[in-house]
Amino acid sequence: MRVVYAQPAYIQTLGQSTAIAEHVQVDFELRGCPINKAQLLELLNALLNGRRPNLSSHSLCFECKQAGRVCVMVAQGTACLGPITQAGCGAICPAYQRGCYGCFGPADSTGPNLAALGQALWAHGCTEAEIQRLYHSFNAGTPAFQNLTLEGKS
Ligand code: SF4
What we know:
This protein has helices at 37-48, 60-66, 72-76, 92-95, 114-123, 128-135. By secondary structure, the protein is mainly α. The longest helix has 12 residues, at 37-48. 23% of the residues are buried. Bound molecules: iron/sulfur cluster.
């Protein structure tokens, strides 16, 4: 809570917070808070023209590579959730030399491989506590992140 909410005055209300899709039919979901304006324009254009939105479902790493950015994790040892995070933000955080903390949620394409990234983070010097904190912020309630175990860590 201290990491995510600077002033957790109303944190107790989150106990009753549920996904909107549990209450109304959701036709399409745009990730991010805030959402990406280019993705919003693409979605509106697609809906107005009766076509499927052309929005990627791969991981954030693809956006870094397409932009020609050096990987912050490989080059600097900075912890980054890019390999398991949904693309769409334009890889903003790595552009400023910081790791992605996963605000676009888990990547859709193949399902996030949390165990493999955990091993890579471990190999780059992260402690188990740091990995747990990274994995238990915005995405902690998603099915992919629940019941997470970091095998081989002590
Ligand atoms: S945390 Fe990750 S997904 Fe969110 S803006 Fe930064 S790079 Fe993009």
